[in-house]
Write a structure and sequence with these properties.
heterodimer; A: mainly alpha; three-stranded antiparallel sheet; 3 strands; 61% helix; B: alpha/beta; six-stranded mixed sheet; 36% helix
Chain lengths: 122, 235
């Protein structure tokens, strides 16, 4: 994984893990690698790796069982919520990027629909 | 904890390390950074007990660093240090004889991970392979402090990934790692604290994730800020 060194690395890896949870690459209730293994796998500092699980846990996206490890939440509601959060963030990033082009809302919606149609045909 | 208290080293009129005071803790990977002649290697040699400060002292767990500290501290210099007749297996034996905490099993594991064969003669190794062997021999010890001078120098991209993994596997909570490198980008994700040195002086210690979060800058950005600025000042 390539990192943007100007953005906290824990945030970049946490985002990647969330994507994997939302897409089902890491299914509900599945075991996540231990902190040390996570550090080695991503080539990151172990303290950074520990921080990732702290954050994911505080958001209720995963939980730790003492002596057994860290697991993806089993709550499909929480995962749906995560999907919505990530989608909303993606839409906001997109809107932020396209804002300087000053398109009207109608043109913008029309373009999105057209692109979505052509993607669906592929 | 490793304490550097007003540590100074002079060579004749030249001051290589100038009153460096800092406290380093276990559980961290420190990146020691600065242009050539910043005093990084000299400080590392003093912290390893290979050289004595002219003034000040370095202590580990309250004891002044000296010959006995080599049981706790392992140092990897930039120079190769193997006899050319040795095979990689001989290097392991040589280390095992020298250091009680050297683990042949860990050494073998590191060789496998870094794709080095024990039968190879050290004189036939490419510079990248020799560098990996140095890393394996150093990390196979069960020390409290690992001081690695330029572990990524002259090594291709793929071998750097292998070395990074080997280093991270050793970064246990009770151990301390201090790495120097000119390849600042290589160290961004591996280190959690940067030690910026310039002309023998300590400029600052920075928590890297905190710096990214608060200031939105990378270690390389901070490096440019410090040394770009300092160079202009000096002219």
């Amino acid at each position: 994984m390539q990192f943007d060194p100007m953005i906290p690395i824990w945030l970049q890896v946490a985002t990647r893990i969330k994507q994997e949870i939302v897409t089902g690459t890491r299914p509900p209730g599945s075991k996540l690698p231990g902190g040390r293994d996570l550090a080695v796998a991503y080539g990151i500092n172990p303290n950074t790796a520990a921080r990732i699980y702290q954050e994911l846990e505080s958001e209720g996206v995963c939980y730790t069982q003492r002596g057994r490890g860290t697991f993806v939440t089993e709550s499909s509601e929480r995962i749906d919520l995560l999907r919505q959060e990530m989608a909303r963030n993606a839409v906001r990033r997109f809107l932020g990027e396209i804002a300087p082009l000053a398109l009207s809302r109608e043109v913008l919606v029309e373009m999105i629909e057209k692109e979505a149609d052509s993607l669906a045909q592929k | 904890m490793l304490k550097s208290n007003q540590v100074t080293r002079r060579f004749g009129n030249f001051t290589a390390v100038d009153h460096v005071t800092m406290t380093l803790e276990p559980g961290h990977v420190y990146a020691m950074l600065g242009p050539n002649g910043s005093g990084k290697t000299t400080w590392m040699k003093m912290a390893s007990g290979l050289m004595k400060p002219t003034e000040g002292e370095i202590t580990f767990r309250g004891e002044v660093i000296g010959v006995n500290s080599r049981r706790h501290i392992t140092y990897m210099s930039t120079e190769p240090f193997f006899y050319s007749w040795m095979t990689i297996r001989d290097v392991g034996k040589y280390y095992a004889d020298f250091f009680d905490d050297f683990s042949p099993a860990v050494f073998d594991g590191l060789l496998t991970e870094m794709e080095l064969s024990p039968e190879m003669k050290t004189r036939s190794l490419s510079s990248g392979m020799a560098a990996k062997l140095k890393i394996a021999a150093t990390l196979a010890r069960d020390a409290d402090i690992y001081i690695l001078d330029e572990p990524f120098n002259g090594i291709d991209l793929l071998a750097r990934d292998e070395i990074r993994r080997a280093i991270l596997r050793r970064a246990e909570p009770e151990k301390m790692l201090i790495l120097s490198s000119h390849l600042v980008e290589e160290m961004e994700a591996v280190a959690d604290i940067a030690i910026f040195m310039h002309k023998g002086k300590l400029i600052e210690l920075r928590d890297l994730e905190e710096m990214r979060q608060r200031d939105g800058i990378s270690m390389a950005d901070r490096y440019r800020q410090i040394y770009g600025h300092v160079e202009v000042d000096a002219q």
